[in-house]
TrEMBL record, chain A:
<dbReference type="GO" id="GO:0005524">
    <property type="term" value="F:ATP binding"/>
</dbReference>
<keyword id="KW-0547">Nucleotide-binding</keyword>
<protein>
    <submittedName>
        <fullName>Simple sugar transport system ATP-binding protein</fullName>
    </submittedName>
</protein>
<dbReference type="GO" id="GO:0005886">
    <property type="term" value="C:plasma membrane"/>
</dbReference>
<keyword id="KW-0472">Membrane</keyword>
<dbReference type="InterPro" id="IPR003593">
    <property type="entry name" value="AAA+_ATPase"/>
</dbReference>
<dbReference type="Pfam" id="PF00005">
    <property type="entry name" value="ABC_tran"/>
</dbReference>
<keyword id="KW-1278">Translocase</keyword>
<keyword id="KW-0067">ATP-binding</keyword>
Automatic annotation (TrEMBL), chain B:
<dbReference type="InterPro" id="IPR001851">
    <property type="entry name" value="ABC_transp_permease"/>
</dbReference>
<dbReference type="GO" id="GO:0005886">
    <property type="term" value="C:plasma membrane"/>
</dbReference>
<keyword id="KW-0812">Transmembrane</keyword>
<feature type="transmembrane region" description="Helical">
    <location>
        <begin position="97"/>
        <end position="119"/>
    </location>
</feature>
<feature type="transmembrane region" description="Helical">
    <location>
        <begin position="254"/>
        <end position="271"/>
    </location>
</feature>
<keyword id="KW-0472">Membrane</keyword>
<feature type="transmembrane region" description="Helical">
    <location>
        <begin position="337"/>
        <end position="355"/>
    </location>
</feature>
<feature type="transmembrane region" description="Helical">
    <location>
        <begin position="70"/>
        <end position="90"/>
    </location>
</feature>
<protein>
    <submittedName>
        <fullName>Simple sugar transport system permease protein</fullName>
    </submittedName>
</protein>
């Protein structure tokens, strides 16, 4: 720290270590290049601290999002950032990427205090962040998105730039088609483009905010391979995730935040999922899922030969047939994009049905408006990739969001906010929603808390049929289990629940039966109690497991 | 520990723009007041450079607007259509429907009301007034419904659509004045006849009753938007159409209904103008009010009570500047420039409530 020249040198070494393979390392001053020797580079590849946060505090009005947080990442290390919903992970990372500025505390980059005023600054310092909501231009190609906003852009440089993109992709094993348009891409592909975007800008510190929340297991595996390769190149990586198995798999160390404070930093090799959960929650927790039995028998919902075309006219659901009983949780498993979204939207009346029937209490609900369907007691809580786009009004508070489906209920031309206010307060207690107040715009809540608001409202609307899609996406472990409990409570009341899920382990424990979708077709419906992950996995890819009792 | 003096500057600009977190209402108000003071100071410098005493000129503007009961009434007369039109526009803006066709909707309101004033002036006075008001609302409402229909049906751009409709409405007056509604007694310049006494809006405290309508509307619109089911629907549609559909709302119906209402309120402004201020229909019936109303609604952040305040401010400025012109012998352009300066600062202040500038520390030069 006392030798500025040396530290500059070392830092340049770090950059080079990470970007050695790149043709144009324009960020590194030529003079520094001159001094570099292979030896320093080797030493610098690991061990040295890449970035360090000291005593960072950030408040929003009366909310203390981060309180005196210390954190450091070394070069060639993957640090997992763990914490409950609203514990301040995203806020902390946003300060590294220049979106917010800390109220107090310092950021040390290679031992040097720096001020990061804007995302452009962050890029200059080699910090790249991949946000949970992608920031890509849909109508442009991958290449155009990657180059967007790079200074000094001109037409004829395009070729060399394409070369550079190719080179980076090859090096890290990123698999993209440079000319493909973003709107044609799967979530995993979009994420790859985001990663390329920051790598193209020579980032050597990479921050990923819940990157796996919307990925399939296969895509996650690919992402982790990429991250491992970057780590080997000497990059410093911070990853936020709520999935403990991923933390155990990918990280070297884990820093745990609780209520805005850094509680502990542990070596991944010396800990386990159980201990991490306790550190996170602050008390011993028992995590188990019940599957209560009940005596309900009647059929609530019958789906016959349902065919649904999605917005592009492609048949996303083809001729499916199933039945939902009262007091049962029917899981829906399948690779992402197998028709889950369309099935939900068709049942909620949001997507026109091309063929088939959905009978609810023997009455066909097809052709009914969403309003009529809501009145019949069918409730959908769909957690799309873009959480705030459907189901919530982002700049309104909890109270106004609670009224969304019930505002018509009270008589006369005026709305009544009284019940909604009480419901909001109840949900805050019940689900542990972290918010400064019931009128704070939900957009300002943390990702997981936004979701609890949506989910809480749907569960509390006393439905007869509850459709939940990706209910626990982005929720911390403890909250996830709270949600499972709530679902079981509804089940005991006789509600029929369609549970569109991702985590097969959870589904096998929670659901009564599991229906497997593949390319819009039902490949099998199995009893969860007697089934295995392998069997379902096979059905998901279209193979027939042991003959699925497709009667339902 | 070393300070950030060794911070690297890669051609860092002297200042940069960064988005700000949301502001509290008090801060926002403080900013506005500050901007107003700056605006007055800058305007003062301008007046001084012309060789006048800024304090005197300002005093004239304020006192000019309220100098006598006649000027006070004049100020209020300017405020009435502006207030009503701003309230109308607010509905559409809340729904994120960019209605910049208030001008045309005012005109259509005026045309519809004029029909009854010209051809049914023998009806009982109160009935005639009510019918004219209803006709004005219908005219403005229908005119606003056209872009709403095409937007919901074919996804046309409402901004261009409403803008173009303004001109069609304007030329319709021209057509009526030169053709079917031409006043046979008019010599030379073709115009529409003046309304008979029976077709003129009554005066209350020396100003036509439009001010009562305006004040009542402030309260009604506030409650409608904040507490009614329809107001809630408007806000949700403005937020996200997907969410509105998900909640079972009929988005198209809501857009059409709200636009009708938005236009209908602007239509009332047209009716009060023809029957209360001009006593006839002329091409100047809206006179740019529909455009100023956009600025008013925007500055007031769509809050009806703030709209009332901003409208009063605008009207005082307008009326006072005309007094200033006559008593100092200044050309019209001077008061226009003055108004421009004030607007510039107030709108500029809006920028600073949303963004902030970050200056390079210590003014260092790029050091590497
Ligand atoms: N712009 C903002 N204005 C006000 N409060 C905010 C803002 N951003 C975050 N907060 C608050 O700061 C706290 C921390 O939020 P943050 O988004 O960092 O949580 P998180 O750890 O990322 O949670 P999650 O796992 O749910 O994503 C929350 O209580 C949130 O409500
Ligand atoms: Mg977060």
């Amino acid at each position: 720290m006392q030798y500025p020249q040396l530290s500059l040198l070392l830092e340049a070494g770090g950059i080079l270590a990470c970007n050695r393979h790149l043709t144009a390392s324009h960020r590194v001053p030529a003079v520094a290049n001159y001094f570099l020797t292979g030896e320093i580079m080797q030493k610098e590849k690991t061990h040295a601290t890449a970035i360090e946060l000291k005593g960072i505090t950030k408040t929003f009005g009366s909310v203390v999002a981060n309180n005196q947080i210390d954190l450091s990442v070394r070069k060639g290390e993957i640090l997992a950032l763990l914490g409950e919903n609203g514990s301040g992970k995203t806020t902390l990372m946003n300060m590294l990427s220049g979106i917010y500025r800390p109220d107090s505390g310092s950021v040390l980059l290679n031992g040097e205090a720096v001020t990061i005023n804007s995302p452009e600054d962050a890029i200059e310092f080699g910090i790249g962040m991949i946000h949970q909501h992608f920031k890509l231009v849909d109508v442009l190609s991958a290449t155009d998105n990657i180059m967007l906003g790079v200074k000094g852009g001109s037409r004829w440089l395009k070729k060399t730039r394409s070369d550079k993109i190719q080179e980076i992709s090859r090096h890290f094993g990123l698999d993209i088609s440079p000319e493909k348009k973003i709107y044609q891409m799967s979530v995993g592909e979009k994420q790859t483009v985001e990663i390329l975007k920051v790598m193209y800008r020579n980032a050597n510190i990479l921050i990923l905010d819940e990157p796996t929340a919307v990925l399939t297991p296969q895509e996650t595996k690919k992402l982790f391979d990429i991250l491992r390769r970057m780590k080997a190149e000497g990059c410093a990586i911070i990853i936020i995730t709520h999935k403990l198995n991923e933390v155990m798999e990918i990280s070297d160390r884990v820093t745990i935040l609780r209520k805005g404070e850094s509680i502990a930093t542990v070596e991944t090799a010396e800990t386990n999922a159980h201990e991490l959960t306790e550190l996170m929650v602050g008390r011993p927790v028992e995590l188990s899922i019940d599957r209560p039995e009940n005596g309900f028998e009647e059929t609530l919902l019958e789906v016959h030969h349902l065919t649904v075309a999605n917005e592009e006219g492609f048949e996303a659901i083809q001729d499916i047939k199933f039945e939902l009983k009262r007091g049962e949780i029917l899981g829906v498993a399948g690779i992402a994009g197998s028709g889950q979204k369309e099935l939900c939207e068709a049942m909620a009346g949001l997507l026109p049905v091309s063929k088939g029937a959905i009978l609810y209490n023997k009455e066909n609900i097809i052709g009914k408006s969403p309003e009529e369907i809501i009145k019949m007691g069918i409730s959908m809580s769909f957690i799309p990739e873009d959480r705030l786009g459907m189901g919530l009004a982002a700049s309104m508070g909890m109270v106004d969001n609670m009224m969304l489906k019930t505002y018509k209920k009270n008589k006369g031309p005026f709305v009544s906010r009284k019940e909604a206010r009480e419901l909001s307060k109840r949900l805050i207690k019940q689900l542990g929603i972290v918010t400064p107040g019931v009128d704070t715009p939900v957009r300002r809540l943390s990702g997981g808390n936004v979701q609890k608001v949506l989910l809480g409202r749907e569960i509390e609307s006393n439905p007869n049929v509850l459709i939940t899609a990706y209910a626990v996406r982005g929720l911390d472990i403890n909250s996830s289990y709270t949600i499972y409990d709530s679902l079981n409570e509804q089940k005991q009341k006789g509600v029929g629940i369609l549970f569109i899920g991702e985590d097969l382990d959870v589904m096998l424990e929670l659901c009564d039966r599991i229906m497997v979708l593949c390319h819009g077709k039902v490949t099998g419906i199995v009893e969860a109690k007697t089934s295995t992950k392998e069997e379902i996995g096979l059905l998901m890819t279209g193979g027939s497991g042991k003959e699925g009792s497709a009667d339902a | 520990m070393r300070e950030s003096s060794s911070k690297r500057h890669y051609n860092e600009p002297l200042a940069r723009i960064v988005k700000k977190d949301a502001m509290s209402n008090q801060r926002m108000a403080a900013y506005s007041v500050f901007a107003l003071i700056l605006a007055i100071a800058a305007g003062g410098v301008f007046i001084f450079s012309l060789g006048y005493n800024p304090f005197k000129v300002y005093a004239t503007i304020v006192s000019g607007a309220f100098r006598s009961s006649i000027s006070t009434q004049g100020t209020i007369k300017i405020a009435i259509p502006l207030l009503i039109a701003s309230l109308g526009i607010t509905h559409a803006f809340k729904m994120q429907f960019w209605n910049i066709g208030a001008e045309g909707q005012i005109i259509m309101g005026g045309i519809f009301a004029t029909y009854f004033a010209l051809f049914h002036s023998d009806w009982p006075h109160w009935l005639l007034m009510l019918v004219m008001c209803a006709a004005g609302m219908l005219g403005g409402g229908l005119w606003a419904l056209i872009p709403a229909f095409f937007k919901t049906k074919y996804g046309t751009n409402e901004t261009l659509f409403t803008l173009m409709l303004n001109y069609i409405a304007l030329y319709m007056i021209k057509y009526l004045a030169e053709g079917p509604w031409l006043d046979p007694k008019a010599s030379g310049f073709p115009k529409i006849a003046s309304f008979e006494k029976n077709a003129r809006l009554d005066e209350v405290f020396g100003v036509h009753a439009g001010w009562i309508i305006g004040l009542v509307l402030v309260g009604v619109v506030y409650f409608y938007l904040k507490y009614s089911k329809q107001g809630y629907e408007i806000a949700i549609v403005g937020e996200s159409e997907n969410t509105a559909r998900y909640a079972g709302m009929n988005v198209k119906k809501i857009i059409m209904r709200t636009m009708f209402l938005s236009g209908a309120i602007c239509g009332i402004a047209g009716m009060t103008q023809v029957s209360g201020a001009a006593y006839t229909l002329s091409e100047g019936v809206a006179g740019g009010v529909g455009f100023t109303a956009i600025i008013v609604a925007w500055l007031a952040k769509l809050n009806p009570f703030v709209i009332l305040l901003v409208t009063i401010g605008f009207s005082v400025l307008e009326k006072g500047s005309s007094v200033m012109q006559s008593s100092f012998g200044l050309p019209t352009s001077v008061s226009d420039i003055l108004q421009g300066i004030i607007l510039f600062f107030i709108l500029g202040c809006d920028f600073f409530t949303r963004y902030k500038l970050i200056f390079r520390k210590g003014g260092q030069k790029n050091d590497n």
